[in-house]
Amino acid sequence: MRRSLSIAFIAACMFIPAWSIAQQKKYKAAAHPAYSRYSMFSPVKITPQGWLRTFLNYQKSGLTGHIENAGYPFNTVMWTGVVNDKMEDRFWWPYEQSGYYIDGAIKAGYLLRDTFLLNKAKKQVDFVLNKKNPDGRLGPQDLKGRWNRWPYAGFLRSFMTEYAVTGNPQIIEVMQKHYATYKGEDFADELDLANAEELCWLYGITGDVSLLKMAETAYATFKSDHKYRDRDGRDIIFGSDRVPDYHGVVYIELVKIPAILYSYTGKKSYLDEALNGIAKMEKNDMLASGIPSSNEHFNGINEMAGHETCNLATIPYTYGHMLQITGDARWADKIEKAVFNGGIGAITKDFKQQQYFSAPNQFIANFDSNHLGYNNARMAFLPGHDTECCTGNVNRFMPYYIQQMWLKTKNGGIAASLYGASEINAVVGTANVPVKIVETTKYPFEEAVTFEVQTKKSVKFPFSMRIPAWCTGASVTVNGKQVAGTVVAGEFFEINRMFANGDKIAINLPMSVKLTNWPNNGVGIERGPIVYSYPITAKIDTISTDYKKATKDFPGLGLNPAADWNYALAINNVNNVQVIKNSNYTYPWAEGAAPVKLKVPAQQLKNWKLHSYVDTAANKTIYQTSPFPSNRETDGDSKDIELVPYGSTLLRVTVFPKVQ
Ligand SMILES: [Zn+2]
């Protein structure tokens, strides 16, 4: 006990400098927006455990800790100097990519309280914080070209995190000076609009209404002038019926902006626009992975569709804002689905490589096999890709997940919104009593989640737990006794009572198997938040020193199928699906570890083969993932195949043709 107390004390001293007490007179902590149900805790209040902690440690030993292995611009000075980019009209380009990385690294560092990661990220943050440019603008050089303000929106999320942890008033001062060099209209052009988040956040802390006005002006100008939303005839109008056809990353980044404006102004029309913008995107583009079809533009739903890895981060971030603002539990379901499936399924489990494009169905992912367009190697698992955005963004998605597992209410309450083994330290109730809540679970592989309250004195506070929309028959107990009240799927269940030290709240979230229907007579299988895939054994080619964005320790991996994968499912209902549990694993996402597998009857389709064509310039045959054959020729033999969690696979079939 003595030892753990002293560690806690050292940790507190490390991250809360002395001036944090003095600054409280000048600035508030990050404000809870007036029209938002929940807000986030500082990352140092949350301690991930179990596989979540292992995941962040893989980030540390993998790309987040060693991003220079990914090549340009991550092997440059990043935000601590002038990056000599040849693209003279786009000086901002390398800062966008490294800004994503720095934001992910500082959050991972604080969540782990890890000095190595924090030193790497804080070197970048502190340089920008302390560099005094005469005009008050932040950053190492004057960023030029269209969208030159966009990199600030990504990078300055690291400042918001730093402020949440330290309360350093200098962060607010330099950000205010920076934004005072612009007018609202300066942020109207497409991606630049993302800065409205920072403007609103600063308004919440300073009370300076000119900042909120700038954010509203930026959005109004964006809406009123088509030129700010034009990409080769494509357009963004969140509030209309227009089918989304824009660049997916841009759309998903921006659709949260009207919702954020609502959270500070209470103007309902803003929220309606965001809700409509997301609803129509999900209707037209949401894939089995939980990530919308986006290569690079939205591209509709079919068995071949895939997504850009940047959206592993934009979905939990944008949906996280929607969750916090509306308090609607279904946003949390969607975040879990995106992170556990599309997210973890786009990386190697040691976090050394990532895909640029990944897909629910990917039967081959070598250096030539990209069927989603642009550079051939974009579906291969590489440390760094030809275009660098995804390599930056991949560092963010799990820190975003973990930071939104626990949310706070304005009245001293706590909500457990996303599940996973972890601890939260918070002050609760009207008297601000410090408590620790320890969440123990093997979620999403087990249905039981328990919370133990640790407190020096009993305290009354509202404690909410999310009941996922996919769950029927959820139950809640306190100290072993069933809690009165109706537990509703798709809503938060609140217990408002006096909690004493050692109180245990337990929820059980039964996970049933569900079939999902997809175009072209396709079928998928889910159980709780997990999507299931057939894992395809791969033969792996590696490249290292001969490729500029890979190294000997972080090689690029090209995956070729080394076993049959051409299965159609012979199922009409869930009675055909057998659930197999396995408790003998250490890291649940490791290949072959699968804590839960599903056994299903399947038949091979003789006429379903990889698509191939001859590249005459390179004089070789290129193989790619292929669509369902229009005529499904089975060999007549039914056999059982085992499906595993999507996130544990590299090559996979997720959307299956049904046997006709
Ligand atoms: Zn990207």
TrEMBL record:
<feature type="domain" description="Non-reducing end beta-L-arabinofuranosidase-like GH127 catalytic">
    <location>
        <begin position="142"/>
        <end position="401"/>
    </location>
</feature>
<dbReference type="InterPro" id="IPR049046">
    <property type="entry name" value="Beta-AFase-like_GH127_middle"/>
</dbReference>
<dbReference type="Pfam" id="PF07944">
    <property type="entry name" value="Beta-AFase-like_GH127_cat"/>
</dbReference>
<feature type="signal peptide">
    <location>
        <begin position="1"/>
        <end position="22"/>
    </location>
</feature>
<dbReference type="Pfam" id="PF20736">
    <property type="entry name" value="Glyco_hydro127M"/>
</dbReference>
<dbReference type="InterPro" id="IPR008928">
    <property type="entry name" value="6-hairpin_glycosidase_sf"/>
</dbReference>
<dbReference type="GO" id="GO:0005975">
    <property type="term" value="P:carbohydrate metabolic process"/>
</dbReference>
<protein>
    <recommendedName>
        <fullName>Glycoside hydrolase family 127 protein</fullName>
    </recommendedName>
</protein>
<keyword id="KW-0732">Signal</keyword>
<dbReference type="InterPro" id="IPR049174">
    <property type="entry name" value="Beta-AFase-like"/>
</dbReference>
<feature type="domain" description="Non-reducing end beta-L-arabinofuranosidase-like GH127 middle">
    <location>
        <begin position="414"/>
        <end position="511"/>
    </location>
</feature>
<dbReference type="InterPro" id="IPR012878">
    <property type="entry name" value="Beta-AFase-like_GH127_cat"/>
</dbReference>
